[in-house]
Every structure is written in C-alpha cells, then in structure tokens.
Amino acid sequence: MDAADLYTRLVDAANGVFGSHPGHRALHAKGTWCEGRFTATPEAARLSRAAHLQGEPIPALVRFSNASGDPESHDAARDGRGMAVKLRLPEGGDTDILATSAPTFVARTPEDFLELMHRRRPDPESGEPDLERLGEYLQAHPEAIPSIQAVLGAEPPASFATLVYHSPHAFRLVAGTGDGTWVRYRWQPEAGDQHIPDEEARARGRDYLREELAERLAGGQAAFDLLLQRAGEDDPLDDPTAPWTEDGEAVAAGRLELHDVADDPESVSGDPVVFDPTRIADGIELSNDPILHARQHAYSVSIERRSPRPS
Ligand code: HEM
Predict the structure, then answer these.
(1) Which band of pLDDT confidence, cut at 50, 70 and 90, is reported for residue 311?
(2) Of these residues, 24, 28, 52, 74, which one is catalytic?
(3) Which of 95, 108, 155, 279 would bridge 195 by S-S if both were Cys, CB 3.0 to 4.6 A apart?
(4) Nearest to 284 by CA among 170, 173, 168
C-alpha cells in the first residue's frame, strides 16, 4: 500500500465505523467553537523561543468535539472528547495544539489504527462490531487497552470545561540558547475534572455540552492551564500509546481563557478551518512519532472531502 492510499483508507475506515456525512469531519464531527485568549508563563519563555510562548496575550480559537464521526452523536455517549486550539502568533500565522480526553492514543502506527478501525466496523445486520475480531486485535495489541479503558471507563463530562485534555505526542521545546526539552502537552481545567452519571447526561439532552458551555460563558469565563510534562529518561518519544512516568511536577506553560461560544466559522465563511498538530512555530520541533506524521495527511483527505466543491 503506498502512503497516499494509507491516508485515504484511514478516512474510509472512519466512515466505515461512523458512516459518511457529507460536509463533516470524518472523526470529531460534532463541535462547539469558542473564542478566547492565551497568555504564556515566564517559564514557557525560558524553555522555548516560540513566539506564542513569550508572554504576550494572543487570541485563541478553540473547537471542542465528540470523537465520533457522527455529527449528531449524543453528548452522553461514552466517547473521547477533543479540544483543538489555534493560537494566533503575534507576527501573523497560527500554531495548533490538539488534545483529547484520553491520556494515550489507541495505536502506535497508522497501519495499526487502520486495522483497529476495520475491526470496529459494525456488522451491517446487527449494527454491532464483531467482538471476537476486536478481542483478537487487543490480544495482539495490548498497548491499545489503556486508551480504550480511559474512554469507556469515564462517565460523561459535566462540561467541556471540566475535562483534562492530553496530547499524546512528544514535542521538543527549543530555547533561545538552543537547549531542548522534550514535553507532552496537557490542558488542565481550572474548574476541575468533573463528570456526571450516564442517566443524568442522557436526561440533559443530545446537545447538553454545547448548551452548558454557552450558559457558562454567558455568565463569565472558563479557563485551562497548559501543562508540560517533561520526558523522563526512559519515556519513549515516538509512541503515543505509552504513558510517561509522572515523576516531578508538570510545568505550567500558560493560561487559556475562553470568553464566548462562537458561531461555526466554517458555516459563516464557507471555508474549512484546519487544525493540524504538525503546524508548529519556530522554537518547537516534532518527534518521529509515526502517528503524529500520518495525521496531517489523513486530515487533508477529510478536509478535501468536507470542503465545498466549486460550482
Ligand atoms: C493516525 C491517527 C489519526 C487519524 C487517522 C486521525 C484522523 C482524524 C480525522 C480524519 C479528523 C478530521 C480532520 C478534519 O476534517 O479536519 C480528526 C480530527 C481530530 N483528531 Fe485525529 N486522527 C488521528 C490521531 C489523533 C490523535 C493521536 C489525537 C490526539 C490528540 C487526535 C485528535 C483529534 C482532534 C482533537 C480532532 C478534531 C480537530 C477539530 O476540531 O477540527 N487525533 N482526526
């Protein structure tokens, strides 16, 4: 299989699990947009020369999502949640940080992720995946289990603003001196990590997360701290399924304040908004994680398919 084929197949496989929904993302299809502001700490500026980490407050565009590829998914579902953040660089341009509620990812390589999605595909008659085939995969790939447990084991969130969101990839922060520090990002909610029972979430209605956030922001703001977890000596830099050792405090790199729920900018302008984890600024470098590098290409396939065709 050539590389282009792999990315197309990844998006086809996501459609196989969740259905094809023209005009929508193949994954994380249902989203809520917010506007806010990000301010980096002096510690972040010491670790990286990146323009958004120097401490000047900058505008941020945020999209919260359910991981499902179904744009009408119920917010009460036991599902991962996404938080995609676009930071506007002071001199122009953007940089993106994408995170989800699962501390680690489900696959080590795009090929494994493809196989897992094929095995998750619901049987057309029963509407359920073949549990035996899924079980075989998990036996051969125990590294997938923590991520699946984290998603299925967590009760629905009380709010998009009460979840911890993790980026499972390693990035290298490069200081003005040239010194490098390998880190993983995490957004820690100021309101704390809060969940509600499944029945209560069901009763709140299909779109309760968007409604709750709109209400919360109408009455004030929500905030997240950007935390940096430094890599320990034996922590792998290229394996998003592997938890890192939690010795030592995470470094607070900045604070994100959300002020308003925004209209979907894609329906307003007709242009797709693209969040890409490899869109980094000078002062930040990518690891060799094969999942990180596959993402931009698979996202391009999804973006191409959801973009309006010229008439
Ligand atoms: C090879 C592995 C992966 C594949 C194939 C994949 C695929 C996709 C696709 C097709 C989209 C929709 C893109 C668009 O139309 O704009 C998407 C969105 C997203 N993915 Fe992934 N993904 C992968 C790994 C990850 C990982 C490791 C994370 C963890 C941070 C993640 C977090 C997200 C988030 C937060 C969004 C929503 C972005 C938005 O709101 O626009 N994905 N993914």
Answers:
(1) low
(2) 28
(3) 155
(4) 173
Look up 52 and say whether it is catalytic: no
* Chain segment 230-246, per-residue pLDDT in tens: 999 999 999 999 999 98
Query: How far from 286 is each of 51, 131, 184, 280, 304, CA to CA, in Å?
Result: 17, 36, 11, 8, 24
Euclidean distance between CA atoms 99 and 83, whole angstroms: 5
Ligand 1, atom 43, lies closest to the CA of 27
If one compares 170 and 3, the residue with the highest pLDDT of the two is 170
Whole-number Å distance, alpha carbon 98 to ligand 1 midpoint, is 8
Taking the centre of ligand 1 as the mean of its atom positions, its distance from the CA of residue 84, in whole angstroms, is 9
Centroid of ligand 1 to alpha carbon of 137 (angstroms): 22
**So what's the pLDDT on residue 308?**
78
CA angle 71, 199, 263 (to 5 degrees): 35
Query: Which residues sit with their C-beta closer than 6 Å to ligand 1?
Result: 10-11, 14, 25-28, 31, 63, 65, 82, 84, 98-100, 105, 110, 113, 167-168, 240, 274-275, 291, 294-295, 298-299, 302-303, 306
Question: What percentage of the chain has pLDDT greater than the value 90?
Answer: 92
Please state the rounded mean pLDDT for residues 15-39: 97
> H or E segment at 223?
strand 222-230
pTM: 0.97
